[in-house]
Amino acid sequence: MIEIRDVHKSFGAVPVLKGITLRIEHGEVVCLIGASGSGKSTLLRCINALESYDSGEITLLDQRVEQRSRHINQLRTQVGMVFQRFNLFPHRTALENVMEGPVHVKREPREQARREAIELLHKVGLGEKLDAYPHQLSGGQQQRVAIARSLAMKPKAILFDEPTSALDPELVGEVLSVMRTLAREGMTMLVVTHEMGFAREVADRVCFLHAGLIIEEGSAQQVLCSPREARTREFLRHVLTNRVEAPHAPNGATGAVA
């Protein structure tokens, strides 16, 4: 599905990815964890060709990812991305934001795109907000619109780049609930997150990145509850010490490891 082989990336003289190798299978949920600056977001941006990489190889659906490839826009329709910031068009309603890609990129008939966008907004719990503009929505609602917008392209996989990091704690749970539903439905997901409770509950695998390398990879239970590497244990202790849990977060939405 997604294959990353010995990928290196530097910004100027600063190496950010130092040889990442990872494979995500169809239907898998893989969470990337690690401190800020460890290379997680850069890796996602390389997968979606928002950043070029210096060496190695990334393939999506058996096609090589290269920024200058004539196939890159078609590949991007197959792999959605949800960002930290919601990146909604401020002058368009929730419904219009979700319709935008199918109408203007995939050239779907407008009525079909509208019908499917309405269904998706109901799916993410925003059926009553079709005509609301982004400034009329909470951060959690805006992020759910962004997820619906990604789903509207009918992707084979979705990349999530810390989708709850810009939200107030009380809004985190509503976004994670939508992501749990996608995981149960079999959506292939690569998720950069600091939500350890979510990772433990949903991820098939967890990868811990440090200084541009994956230094530990395994099941969520193994990495989060019985980490082998000292650096992983140190990171998780830091999360436990500093994470302030939202008092009403459902199902451990913002909890760390036990």
In short:
This protein is of the alpha/beta class and 258 residues long. The chain has 9 helices and 10 strands. Mean pLDDT is 91; it is low at 244-258.
Description:
The protein is α/β, with parallel strands linked by helices and 258 residues long. The chain has a domain at 2-87 and 156-242: Rossmann fold (3-Layer(aba) Sandwich). It contains 9 helices and 10 strands. It has a 6-stranded mixed sheet with strand order 6-7-8-3-9-10, with helices on both faces. A 4-stranded antiparallel sheet has the order 2-1-4-5, covered by helices on one side. A hairpin with a 2-residue loop joins strand 4 and strand 5 (63-64). It starts with a strand and ends in a 16-residue tail after the last helix. Residues 244-258 have low confidence and may be disordered.
Question: Gap between N and C termini, in Å?
Answer: 32 Å
State the order of secondary-structure elements, H for helix, E for strand. Answer: EEEHEEHEHHHEHEHEEHH
Which percent range describes the beta-strand content? Answer: 15-25%
Average pLDDT, all residues: 91
What CATH first level of the domain at 2-87 and 156-242 would be assigned?
Answer: Alpha Beta
Major sheet: 6 strands, mixed
CATH superfamily of the domain at 2-87 and 156-242: P-loop containing nucleotide triphosphate hydrolases
Shape: globular
Strand order of the largest sheet: 6-7-8-3-9-10
CATH third-tier fold name of the domain at 2-87 and 156-242: Rossmann fold
Number of strands: 10
CATH architecture of the domain at 2-87 and 156-242: 3-Layer(aba) Sandwich
